[in-house]
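Propose amino acids for all 349 sites.
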C-alpha cells in the first residue's frame, strides 16, 4: 500500500481526543454525522466547523427571493450562504467573500460538492472593504440582499495554529489573512505601552488598560512573547489576585490585538461607507456584530444613512438570539443583529 493511500490517524491519550488536530471525526462531518450530532447536542461546535448564528432572524430580515442577487460578505463555513442559496433559486446568484485564504477553499469545495455551481455561486477571496470593486468585477450593479456576519469563524478560533485561542498553545498570530500585515507577536515586539493601552481601551473596553499595557510591554521587553500561552500567562500574572477574572481579561487582550492586526475597524467603516451604493433600490442589508466596537459603528452608519435618505428604514433596536439558540450554542451569546433597507428609486429621486 502506498504512503498516500494509507494515512494513519493522529493518536491521542485517554478515551477522547482533546486537541483540535486529534478530533479527526469532527473534521470529517460527512463521514461521521453521528459524532457531529452528539457534539452539537452537547452545546459545542465540532472542530473544523462553524454553526451559523441567528439564521432564522437573518432570513426574516433579508427576505431573499428567487432570482435575487445576494452577497455574503463573510462566507466562513457557508452556513448562512447555504440557506440564502436555497431561497434565491431559480435564477438567483450569490457572491461570497472572505478574507481567509485557508478556510475559503475548503468552504468553496464543500458548497460546490453540495451542488452549487459557478452559475449560482461566485466565491471571491477579498476583504469586504473592497465589496464595490468585487461587485463591479462580477458585472453586478447592485445587490438585493447583503449579509455580513462579523468577526471570527469557529474554524479560525479553535485552530491553535492560527493563534486566536489561549486555551491551547500556538504561535501568537491572530491574522485572518496570514499573508497580509504582521502577526500579533511582531506587533507586541515593538508596541509602546501608551499605544497598547489605547488598543485595549478602544478595541476591547478593557477597564484596567493602563496597568495591563504597562505590565505586558514590560514582560515583552524582558523576553519576547511568541505564543498564545505565553501571552495568556503574562496577563494571568498581571491579574494577580483577581484570578477568577483572568480568562475574561485574556479574552479582551486577544480581541484588542486581533482587531489591530486585522485592521478590523477600518475595514468595517469602509464597508459601511460603500454599502448603500452596493445595494439596489429597496435592497436589504443585515449585519451581525459580536462586540460593542462593531455594533457602535454599524449603528452610527445606519443612523447617518437614514438621516441622509440613503436608507428608507433601519432597525430601531438590536435583535438578539433567543433562549433556545443561546442554550444550544453559547457562542451566539454576544451576537447583535441590525438591518437597513435602501430607499426605492422614487424615494431617492
Ligand atoms: C463569523 S464568521 C462567518 C460565518 C458564516 N456566516 C457561516 O455561516 O459560516 C466570519 C467570517 O468573516 C471573515 N471576515 C472577517 N473580516 C472580514 C473582512 N474584513 N473581509 C472579508 N471577510 C472577513 C472571517 O474570515 C470569517 O470567515
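Proposal:
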Amino acid at each position: 500500500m502506498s504512503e498516500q493511500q494509507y494515512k494513519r490517524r493522529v493518536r491521542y491519550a485517554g478515551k477522547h481526543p482533546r486537541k483540535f488536530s486529534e478530533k479527526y471525526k469532527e473534521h470529517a462531518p460527512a463521514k461521521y454525522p453521528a459524532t457531529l450530532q452528539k457534539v452539537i447536542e452537547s452545546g459545542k461546535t465540532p472542530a473544523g466547523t462553524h454553526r451559523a448564528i441567528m439564521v432564522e432572524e437573518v432570513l426574516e430580515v433579508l427576505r431573499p427571493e428567487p432570482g435575487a442577487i445576494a452577497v455574503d460578505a463573510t462566507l466562513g463555513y457557508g452556513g448562512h450562504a447555504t440557506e440564502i442559496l436555497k431561497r434565491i433559486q431559480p435564477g438567483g446568484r450569490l457572491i461570497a467573500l472572505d478574507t481567509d485564504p485557508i478556510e475559503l477553499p475548503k468552504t468553496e469545495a464543500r458548497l460546490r460538492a453540495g451542488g452549487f455551481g459557478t452559475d449560482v455561486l461566485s466565491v471571491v477571496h477579498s476583504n469586504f472593504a473592497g465589496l464595490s470593486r468585487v461587485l463591479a468585477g462580477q458585472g453586478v450593479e447592485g445587490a438585493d440582499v447583503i449579509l455580513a456576519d462579523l468577526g471570527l469563524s469557529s474554524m479560525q478560533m479553535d485552530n491553535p495554529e492560527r493563534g486566536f485561542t489561549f486555551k491551547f498553545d500556538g504561535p501568537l498570530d491572530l491574522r485572518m489573512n496570514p499573508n497580509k500585515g504582521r502577526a500579533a507577536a511582531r506587533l507586541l515586539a515593538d508596541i509602546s505601552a501608551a499605544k497598547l493601552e489605547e488598543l485595549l481601551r478602544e478595541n476591547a473596553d478593557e477597564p484596567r488598560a493602563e496597568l495591563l499595557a504597562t505590565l505586558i510591554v514590560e514582560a515583552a521587553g524582558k523576553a519576547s512573547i511568541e505564543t498564545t500561552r505565553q501571552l495568556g500567562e503574562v496577563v494571568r500574572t498581571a491579574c494577580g489576585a483577581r484570578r477568577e477574572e483572568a480568562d475574561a481579561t485574556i479574552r479582551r487582550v486577544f480581541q484588542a490585538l486581533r482587531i489591530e492586526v486585522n485592521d478590523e475597524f477600518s475595514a468595517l467603516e469602509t464597508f459601511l461607507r460603500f454599502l448603500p451604493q452596493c445595494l439596489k433600490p429597496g435592497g436589504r442589508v443585515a449585519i451581525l456584530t459580536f462586540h460593542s466596537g462593531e455594533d457602535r459603528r454599524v449603528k452610527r452608519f445606519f443612523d447617518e444613512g437614514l438621516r441622509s435618505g440613503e436608507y428608507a428604514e433601519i432597525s430601531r433596536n438590536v435583535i438578539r438570539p433567543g433562549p433556545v439558540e443561546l442554550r444550544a450554542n453559547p457562542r451566539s451569546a454576544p451576537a447583535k443583529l441590525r438591518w437597513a433597507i435602501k430607499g426605492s428609486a422614487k424615494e431617492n429621486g
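The first helix runs from residue 33 to 41. The chain has a mean pLDDT of 91.
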